[in-house]
Amino acid sequence: MRTKTTLLAAILLISSTIWAKPTPEEGKTIFSTRCAGCHNVNKVLTGPALAGVDQRHTIEWIVNFVHSSQTVVKSGDKAAVALFEKFNRIPMPDHPDLTDDNIKSIVEYIKSESAGAAKQAVAVKDVDKPSESLSSFFSPGIILTFVVLFALLVTTILFAVRVKSLEREILKKKG
Ligand code: HEC
């Protein structure tokens, strides 16, 4: 019984980590406490406006830059050096404690706040709603959860059958 409970707990844990995608909501919280002092999505402040940042750089670049912008600048990365010069050589502070997923969620938030993206989102909602909700229903997380639960069910049934036949054998031997 205990092994089964452990197994079930493990499955729940695995499926919940798959479910926990970086969300714009989480990004918004981090952005407003850690980034909004210097950045706005659509306006230039001390730092550049961040709208479209995911199109200017790869996600790896953004993660590295947020972790330690000066490391990227000093590595000679052309885009980083140009930005640093353009923004009066103000070094962006390091945020080494943010995880990759934290930073991805900030990027999700930036996407959801970009002026262009807002219009696109409305258009997508109007046109594609049924297929969109269908595809999000069949997300990898849910499919995996179903597969795992199904496998668990089959194992349990097989186990029960095996116990029954063992029981019968024992009874046969006795009788
Ligand atoms: C003290 C001000 C400051 C804070 C706080 C700050 N930044 Fe910056 N950021 C800058 C400046 C200035 C630049 C321009 C590059 C440079 O000077 O190094 C920049 C550049 C960037 C870039 C590159 C933008 C582009 O257009 O290519 C990204 C991405 C970025 N910051 C993300 C963030 C995130 C995410 C946070 C919060 C976790 C944050 N920044 C917090 C000042 C700041």
Write the layout of secondary structure elements.
Elements: H1 2-19, H2 24-35, H3 53-56, H4 59-67, H5 69-74, H6 78-86, H7 100-113, H8 115-137, H9 140-174
Helix pairs in contact: 1-9, 2-7
The structure holds heme C.
List keywords for this structure.
mainly alpha, binds heme C, Cytochrome Bc1 Complex, Chain D, domain 2, metal ion binding, heme binding, single chain, heme, 175 residues, transmembrane
Oligomer: single chain
User: How many strands, what sense, and barrel or not for the largest sheet?
Assistant: none
CATH architecture: Orthogonal Bundle
Give the beta-strand count: 0
Counted up, domains total: 1
Helix content: over 70%
Say which molecules are bound, naming each kind only once. heme C
Keywords: Heme, Iron, Membrane, Metal-binding, Signal, Transmembrane, Transmembrane helix
Pfam families: Cytochrom_C
Protein name: Cytochrome c
GO molecular function, one term: electron transfer activity
Describe this structure in words.
The protein is mainly α. It has one domain: Cytochrome Bc1 Complex, Chain D, domain 2 (Orthogonal Bundle). The protein has 9 helices and no strands. Helix 2 (24-35) crosses helix 7 (100-113). The protein is elongated and about 95 Å long. The two termini are 30 Å apart. 14% of the residues are buried. The model has no long low-confidence stretch (mean pLDDT 86). Bound molecules: heme C.
Q: Summed up, what is this model?
A:
The chain crosses the membrane at residues 137-161. 74% of the residues lie in helices and 0% in strands. By secondary structure, the chain is an all-alpha fold.
